[in-house]
Amino acid sequence: MGSEVRIRLDGVGRRYGLRGRWVLRGVDLEVAPGALIRIEGANGTGKSTLLRLLAGLDAPTEGRVAGRPRTAFVPERFPAALPFTAAGYLTHLGAVHGLTRKAAARAADEWLERFGASGHARTPMAELSKGGSQKVAVAQALLAAPELLVLDEAWTGLDAAAREELERAVAERTADGTAAVFVDHDPRRLAEVTDTTYTVVDGALALRAAAEEAACPGRPRVVVEARGPAGAEPPGEVVRLAVSVAEAEGGAYRFGVTEPRSDAILRALLGARPPWHVVSVNLYEAGSL
Ligand SMILES: Nc1ncnc2c1ncn2[C@@H]1O[C@H](COP(=O)(O)OP(=O)(O)OP(=O)(O)O)[C@@H](O)[C@H]1O
């Protein structure tokens, strides 16, 4: 099922408007067949921008995108106001992807059933709930049997069963050679099967090594909650040391870090200019995060 077509970003930069700030700059990234890549970063750092470039829905301002595997994309917000029923839309797309109408209709039913949405098959897209239309968004991407799957917060709005099903489907596909790149606010999402995590920081991608990632679930984790000056993004050094970065209430951030690095992350927070205020430091046992 997998292909050898791999996508590569070479020195990619993107800014919006002639004098806009660079959202991304000098990004190099290669996505191999079967790779499962997580992209994380604080709000507004450019995660969706990067995913749209990977999906081919946007073009870089500078640099280039080489290779174009057959790509499917689940956007953060799916345009639900389409003149189709859920099953009609999926059947139509299946046909666009080269299936016969009969095979497309069968695939549409199968995916709707897998996501617990059979009851919505005849519902016009415009009348679907947020969760219902998200299920169709996910089904349309999987039905396309893509070589590259790009998922931007695809789990948001799905019920627990559908969230699990989507994790299963992505893990199955990547085991089968499909590459997948995803953004999700839940640090546990696909944590056990993710090959590489990149954090978008200052417009660039900071790599978190797979070995370190794999070593983390079995180890105690220190979670540092800290607050910076209003609107400030976490210092780059802190993001590089952290295993997970999540926004907390009131503009604070929660940084997960392996125990041996906890002193270094505190030093980086307190030594930032201007310094960050450390709200709390807690030790969690493996699996409790
Ligand atoms: N079409 C656009 N026109 C102008 N500015 C844009 C556009 N799309 C994104 N931006 C800006 O680019 C920056 C990065 O946005 P992007 O949506 O890629 O970030 P993100 O990391 O996905 O954010 P979030 O976590 O909030 O979804 C933001 O400052 C945003 O305002």
TrEMBL record:
<dbReference type="InterPro" id="IPR003593">
    <property type="entry name" value="AAA+_ATPase"/>
</dbReference>
<protein>
    <submittedName>
        <fullName>ABC transporter ATP-binding protein</fullName>
    </submittedName>
</protein>
<keyword id="KW-0813">Transport</keyword>
<dbReference type="InterPro" id="IPR027417">
    <property type="entry name" value="P-loop_NTPase"/>
</dbReference>
<dbReference type="InterPro" id="IPR003439">
    <property type="entry name" value="ABC_transporter-like_ATP-bd"/>
</dbReference>
<dbReference type="GO" id="GO:0016887">
    <property type="term" value="F:ATP hydrolysis activity"/>
</dbReference>
<dbReference type="GO" id="GO:0005524">
    <property type="term" value="F:ATP binding"/>
</dbReference>
<keyword id="KW-0547">Nucleotide-binding</keyword>
<dbReference type="Pfam" id="PF00005">
    <property type="entry name" value="ABC_tran"/>
</dbReference>
<dbReference type="InterPro" id="IPR051782">
    <property type="entry name" value="ABC_Transporter_VariousFunc"/>
</dbReference>
<keyword id="KW-0067">ATP-binding</keyword>
<feature type="domain" description="ABC transporter">
    <location>
        <begin position="7"/>
        <end position="227"/>
    </location>
</feature>
